[in-house]
Amino acid sequence: MKLKLCFASLFIFAAIQLQGQVVTGHYGPGLFGLRSAHGFPTDWSYVNVTHIYYAAEMKDNDGKISILAKPINVIANISGGIWGTKLDKINANYNAAVILPFTNLAPNPETLELDPNNIGLGDIKVIPLMLTWNFKQFAVNTRYAFWAPTGSYDMNSKSNKGKGFWSHNLGLGGTVYLDAKKSWNVSLMNTFEFNGKQKGTNITPAPSYVAEYGIGKTFDEAFNMGVIGYTTKQIGKQKGGTIPAGLNNYQVSAVGMEFNYRTKSKWAFITRWYLEYDGVNRPEGSAIRFIFLKNF
């Protein structure tokens, strides 16, 4: 049975608080890659993800680059359980998942060494509904997910593991196979996030939109590689808080590569790398992800 080689919305790292009182949501852009709408198997799967993100500068509305006083350096490890079944009446695959993130938001910026005293459970993500339709030459995927504020959060703390608010996530996208053997694939995934009010600050973060794409080639039905990228942007206004002038809207894009391999024993190994560009009121950095998925 084919394994899906990317997993939606695993990371909480992109919930980076910018300068002043600008607060972003939970969804980490770039969580979809190659063959993103292919779906999960209709049984049990386990996924584990290690994510590293580093940024030392950010850009304002005018494209001016400023060096951050302290580089943003996030390391997160996420474990998730996924279950699925076939819905014959609508000819779709149904999946649900629970994601447990453990993260450290203040590692050593030079060595990426984790501080054992600063690792903790972040905001748990639940995907109660994911539907996938796989047709001969294309696939369609839609989903609903939410984050619960289970991670520690205090408005005066500099080492929070959570964000202090609920978030809701809606997504729709597709994958098109360009040849009969499905060796060439093109994917586009659209995601919208809506946030609740943050505890203690009276801030409701603005909603956001993310477009993620992938163009890849499969070799021997086991190895897949290609170009991936994303664009994320603020699509509404933040409520509450004092927003510094010129920081009302943020956006950033990224481009990178993905390499993934699946074995006959139902293991999948994925590596993704991104380099961000065209940032506005947001840090520009780089990210790498190591993903292991086992289907039982």
Structure explained in plain terms:
With 296 residues, this protein is mostly beta strands. It has a single domain (44-295), classed as Lipocalin. Helix content is 0%, strand content 54%. It has no helices and 13 strands. It has strands at residues 44-59, 65-87, 92-104, 120-121, 125-134, 138-147, 167-177, 184-195, 208-219, 223-234, 251-262, 267-280, 282-295. β12 (267-280) and β13 form a beta hairpin.
What's the name of the CATH homologous superfamily?
A: Autotransporter beta-domain
Structural class determined from secondary elements: mainly beta
**Counting H and I runs of at least 4 residues, what is the number of helices?**
0
What name does CATH use for the topology? Lipocalin
Q: Average the pLDDT over all residues and give the rounded result.
A: 85
Total discrete domains: 1
In sequence order, what are the helices and strands, one letter per element? EEEEEEEEEEEEE
With strands numbered from the N-terminus, the spatial order across the biggest sheet is 1-2-3-5-6-7-8-9-10-11-12-13
Q: Calculate the terminal CA-CA distance, rounded to whole Å.
A: 10 Å
Strand content: over 45%
Q: Roughly how much helix do the residues carry, as a percent range? A: under 10%
- How would you sum up the major sheet? 12 strands, antiparallel, barrel
Oligomer: single chain
What are the segments in which pLDDT stays under 50 over at least 5 consecutive residues? Answer: 1-16, 106-114
CATH top level label: Mainly Beta
CATH architecture: Beta Barrel
State Rg: 19 Å
Globally, the shape reads: globular
Total DSSP E strands: 13
